[in-house]
Amino acid sequence: MLNIVLVEPEIPNNTGNIGRLCVGTESRLHLIHPFGFQITDKNVKRSGLDYWVHLDWKEYQNVEEWMTVIPDKSRVFLLSSHATTSYLDTQFQDGDWLVFGKESVGLSAEVLSKFENHLKIPISPLVRSYNLANSCAFVIGEAKRQLLLK
């Protein structure tokens, strides 16, 4: 099982779509406060459709609380546009943690400094960034592909 972490998500539809993606890929979703919405918001559950009841998810009040549940910090991968290593050049393992920042600014320098594995998603210089749900789909898809080949 992969662990998908959203740090301070701001847009309920993205979180709902990512929740649905986690159900489909049998991944666990970890949500770190503060959120830009309430988890009971109809948009979150609407985007997740009726799959939200099947979602394995946990929420944390802050990054420090979340970090207490990580058994091996070397298996935490933070996605950042500032990284130099592509997620395509990474060997994923069952139980890995894939961490994504908030839609408006990504992961803070403080969060990035807590872990060594920073990954980027290759992108054309014509585009500033990908949508958060799409970014998650790219990386989860590659990680699941690798796990299925093992």
Can you put this structure into words, describing what you see?
Strands 3-2-1-6-4-7-5 form a 7-stranded parallel sheet. It is α/β, with parallel strands linked by helices and 150 residues long. The chain starts with a strand and ends with a helix. 31% of the residues lie in helices and 19% in strands. It is built from 5 helices and 7 strands.
Number of extended strands: 7
Count, helices: 5
User: How would you classify the helix and strand content by structural class?
Assistant: alpha/beta
Spatial strand sequence of the major β-sheet: 3-2-1-6-4-7-5
Q: How would a crystallographer describe the biggest sheet?
A: 7 strands, parallel
Radius of gyration: 14 Å
Helix content: 25-40%
> Roughly how many Å apart are the termini?
14 Å
Give a short summary of the structure.
The protein has 150 residues and is an alpha/beta fold.
Layout of SSEs?
Layout: E1 3-7, H1 12-25, E2 28-32, H2 42-47, E3 57-60, H3 63-67, E4 76-79, E5 85-86, E6 97-100, H4 109-112, E7 117-120, H5 132-149
Parallel strand pairs: 1-2, 1-6, 2-3, 4-6, 4-7, 5-7
Helix pairs in contact: 1-5
List its traits.
150 residues, alpha/beta, single chain
